[in-house]
Design brief:
The chain has 531 residues and is an alpha/beta fold. It contains 19 helices and 22 strands.
């Protein structure tokens, strides 16, 4: 999968191809185009479906384009008479003019390349822009599959269907909103089935199936459904309106009850967004972490003055306790004032960095001198930026800095110590974790990425003057240090039930929805998984 993965090429598994063919082909007569046929899995699945529907010459109904087809597999399929060689074109789909296209198709069926926008070559970008001139322009940050979807519309007959296997980014990437806007009002009905299970072997990417029916008609119905494993049929799903379709869809995959629980936390139980109590910023941007962050042994070799060394956390994996006072000072940021005189060993170190081009990197070349970082202020607390586990807040009692892989939290002046501990505790409740799952983004392998804008919306509880005993922090630390996140959440929920009289039924419901979203993110079967 090496080169294929780098090019966003994930050949379609047979069961997924057959499902996509089954839901998009409902009669024996349609002509079908796959604009990126690869090794022909979708075309072969379409042939099988057409035969089942009593088509007499299915191979004459199937067409495809691909700039890099899997020639061995295609040759074998053609030699066996499954596909028609004259209907398959080794050509860039975007170089085929859709204007005045004589041969329009009843069905477009595709698994387009999942290539990120920054990996699309300038030459390909220009070809795509020329091809899409007649459509409203998609953002330049769009991934390649977006262009395939939009350009294929020019090859579709009135009342035709479009079926596509797409990555999860279709749910919540910014560019995907523009893509979904383009689809709106082009089809009478739009259905999305999100699949939790990883269907592509050896890769982290998870997929959904998009089915658009009734091309050329005003959109009447949009539905969204979720299934952990591939279902036999495409269910009706949950209906959503046009406004919802043009929002990030992640939070709408499951029942509207999830959003209701969040509103109840705000309106009834006193939870508020973290931004009401703190400012959330990214950590220190060095421009070259491996150069500007050194360990104790290196600092001694370089004879670095203690005043030039600031303890720093490299990555969020270090966050294993609710206070940095329990953390060892292993790494240090070289924090050298602009006018400082440099010891010989440190001067040589910077000269070597200059020789290696560290001074000409994006961030370093803006600084004068390049090795002197702006003054850094230790935050009041830290929060995970990216994690597969349960994110939580760590109070920065030891005055560490952190890299920009960890969020820095600066509490408002009126948020005193006891209130900060309540915020910590509330972060580990099912209520807060549910709010995180709803607002954060999901990346490969189920990693949660909590952008600063999402961190602001995490629901926390201030405590309203109530005192928290020290043994609560001690017990939570035992759970967190050993990775027992399930127990930590259960313990935090129990404290809120006992101390604030939060109804057990409400907390159970929050936990159920949190577990469902977490399982969805991690690619687990919610019925079989636990936190």
């Amino acid at each position: 999968m090496g080169d294929e993965k780098n090019n966003g090429i994930y050949y379609t598994p047979a069961d997924l191809a057959e499902f996509a063919a089954r839901i998009s082909i409902t009669s024996p007569h349609p002509t079908l185009l796959d604009p990126a046929f690869g090794e022909g899995a979708l075309l072969l699945a379409a042939r099988k479906r057409l035969l089942m529907l009593k088509s007499r010459k299915p191979k004459t109904q199937l067409y495809g384009y691909d700039i890099l087809p899997a020639k061995k597999a295609i040759t074998e399929a053609c030699d066996k008479g499954y596909l028609l060689r004259s209907n398959l074109f080794e050509k860039d789909f975007f170089a085929v003019s859709c204007e005045n296209q004589v041969h329009k198709y009843d069905v477009i069926l595709m698994n387009p390349p999942f290539v990120r926008h920054h990996l699309i070559s300038e030459e390909s970008q220009q070809t795509i822009r020329n091809a899409l001139a007649q459509f409203r322009r998609l953002p330049l940050t769009s991934d390649l599959y977006s262009y395939f979807i939009i350009y294929s519309l020019g090859f579709l007959r009135n009342n035709g269907k479009l079926a596509a296997i797409l990555p999860w980014s279709f749910l919540n990437a910014d560019f995907a909103i523009s893509l979904r806007r383009e689809l709106l009002d082009h089809f009478r009905q739009i259905k999305v089935l999100v699949i939790g299970e990883r269907l592509f072997p050896k890769v982290e990417e998870r997929v959904l199936v998009l089915l658009c029916d009734g091309f050329g008609k005003k959109t009447e119905k949009i539905s969204l459904d979720y299934s952990f494993s591939l279902p036999r049929k495409l269910q009706e799903g949950r209906f959503i309106n046009r406004d919802t379709w043009l929002q990030p869809l992640w939070r709408h995959v499951f029942s509207a009850k999830t959003t209701d629980l969040i509103m109840e936390a705000k309106n009834k139980y006193g939870f508020c967004p973290l931004s009401e109590y703190a400012d959330i910023r990214i950590g220190t941007v060095t421009g070259a972490n491996n150069f500007f962050i050194i360990d104790k042994e290196t600092s001694k070799k370089l004879n670095v003055p203690r005043r030039f060394l600031k303890p720093i956390l490299r990555h969020s994996g270090a966050l294993r306790n609710l206070s940095t006072s329990a953390y060892a000072m292993n790494d240090f940021l070289l924090s050298v004032p602009k006018t400082a005189r440099l010891p010989g060993e440190l001067s040589n170190y910077f000269n070597k960095g200059k020789k290696d081009g560290i001074n000409n990197r994006y961030h370093t070349k803006k600084r004068k001198p390049w090795y002197s970082l702006p003054k850094q202020h230790p935050p009041d607390a830290f929060l995970h930026y990216m994690t597969k586990e349960v994110p939580f807040i760590v109070l920065n009692d030891a005055r560490f800095l952190s890299t920009n892989t960890i969020h820095n939290i600066f509490f408002n002046d009126d948020v005193e110590e006891n209130a900060r501990k309540w915020i910590q505790l509330s972060m580990l409740t099912s209520v807060s974790q549910l709010s995180i799952e709803l607002t954060a983004r999901t990346y490969g392998g189920g990693v949660l990425k909590i952008e600063p804008s999402a961190a602001k919306n995490i629901l926390v509880y201030l405590g309203q003057g109530r005192t928290l005993p020290d043994e609560i922090e001690e017990q939570l630390n035992l759970f967190l240090k050993t990775g027992n996140y399930k127990e930590a959440l259960e313990y935090a929920d129990q404290q809120f039930k006992n101390r604030l009289r939060l109804p057990d039924s409400y907390l159970v419901e929050c936990r159920k929805h949190f577990d469902q979203l977490r399982a969805f993110r991690l690619g687990l079967d919610a019925k079989k998984s636990e936190t």
